[in-house]
């Protein structure tokens, strides 16, 4: 199989898990190469996500490393399965981070998110999203802005597809009161939030300004739960693009952040009432 030049975040993650497994078992790269019948350089490329590994070869790797967690190994084997997703149509057109977010969402069984200033991308109306994408420096060319809008709307299908992931969202009051696009756009956005919050797999909590301080204030945080907890991922937004984290300490830290915010937030029914009150004020 050909070597990659730009592995996706999912491919990098698979490689990182292979490296972690090998190092934890105290198995050398040379011994692993000998077992798999490949040269030493390919082991490094597997572990960097630069070269695809077949599911069968991955299972041999795990057996050689005496990994006892069958569910974890099978989850990794699933990651090694080739096959493009819908987001690959945008490869070369949008920054890779946009595609990595869509891929992460597609493979998550549960998404936990927290947003302080922005409405979550999966819950934005197209008019709201247009304003958000238009507020960048330097301004996006009109064609690229339209492509980003189409991609974002396509991402949102995950919440209305068959067998959607559970979606738990915390939105700060500040985000609800941002009049991006003016009163009419803001009101329509709040009404859309109310509609989406009625879906059985969507749980929306509002965090009022009166709740006070909480960790990570100002960050946009997405915690994607995988089929096994070892493969959970945290995604954080920045002005330079998304950042993906999956160290055990990082996962624990951001689970604690979300749990703290959830304790401060209103319950779903009170949250819907709060959103209605904000909408009436527009």
UniProtKB/TrEMBL annotation:
SMART domains per UniProt: HTH_XRE
Family annotation (PROSITE patterns): HTH_CROC1
HTH cro/C1-type domain mapped to chain residues: 18-58
Highest taxon of the lineage: Bacteria
CDD domains per UniProt: HTH_XRE
Protein name: Helix-turn-helix transcriptional regulator
Organism: Streptomyces nondiastaticus
Lineage of producing organism: Bacteria, Bacillati, Actinomycetota, Actinomycetes, Kitasatosporales
